[in-house]
Amino acid sequence: MSHPDQQSASLEADFSKITMLPGQSVWDYLTMCRARHPELYRRLNLSRVTPDKVARLYSEIARLATHFESKLEKGRGDTYRRAQNVSYLNRAAGFLRLFDLAAPPGPMAGDQLTVLDSLGGNGTMTRIVRASRPPHEVPFIVTSDVSPRMIENALAQDIPAIRLPLQDLIWFDDCTFDAVIVAYGTHHIPVKERSKAIAEAHRVLKPGGRIVLQDFEIGCPTTLWYEDVLDQYTVTGHKFDYFTRQQFAELLDENSFVEVEVRDIYDPVSMHAGDPKQAVRLLLEYVFTLFALDKLVPDDGVLSEQFWAELEAVVRRTSTFKPDQLPEGFRNITEFSVVKDGNGYRAEIPRVCLVATGRRKPVA
Length: 364
Hints:
- By secondary structure, this protein is α/β, with parallel strands linked by helices.
- It has three domains: 4-62, no CATH class; 86-217 and 243-263 and 354-360, 3-Layer(aba) Sandwich (Rossmann fold); 269-352, no CATH class.
- Helix content is 37%, strand content 19%.
- It is built from 13 helices and twelve strands.
- The strands form three sheets. Strands 5-4-3-6-7-12-8 form a seven-stranded mixed β-sheet, sandwiched between helices. A three-stranded antiparallel β-sheet has the order 9-11-10. A two-stranded antiparallel sheet has the order 1-2.
- The radius of gyration is 21 Å and the shape is globular.
């Protein structure tokens, strides 16, 4: 392991010229990371990279439009981050099901395990796991993402995070992580780079380490939310290629994973309130803010009762399932519903995601 104070003056000068985050060079980041996130820092190997390679990587990803830039940068990330930070537990059920596949809860799931949340945005997975598990069952989680604004926001919340694309995890050695999660953005990876991304996940996993790959299946009502609603009503649009079950299995098979399984996971969005109507309205407001459905707003800018009724109709159109389209054990809510929950009510939007799991082959 190399440290900034052990590097030559020329290396410091080179890294100081490369921008990693808004207003922060690679050298600034490394210095900050060493002080604030030593567990992440000790997993970075500066000897794996050259200034030229680092400069080329961050120059290439600086040209990407991630959709999660700020509004001034023509993105929809501001409201997304705000909604995620204020109401991150609204999506906890699906996140935790994924995380449990990567690092099953129990006495062996503590900080002796290291998990890479490779499309982790501003650290929502980390916050959900920390809020939901006993501290001794929370692994050390590293959030990575290509979006500078997402990583900037994660770091502001003291979450160990680094700006990297899954396709090139240049700072990490082989066999660094016990699990890699690739979720809630796999469709953003260009089709031609998807196999490379999964190969890189395989490289950084320890022998026996788990991968959890998540996205949305072609033809599923949840996928229509992204394909139709987000594409039509957001300033960024949302034209991406989604997945078949066979494609998910092949991505893992062709990159040497073993014990490959593909399954559906119930992934609802929910909101609790004391009154059923309030629960519905709060959930609609959350969805409107999270996904920044600005183009749905009428010309006069007034969010009237008619507006909320129209949004509810849009949500229902992409969240109504036949029972056999839902995973076993989760077939009681087939459409946008409100149910009694303890002393209050829970509004719930059913969603289904496609998940593939596998392992890097253990050492014989």
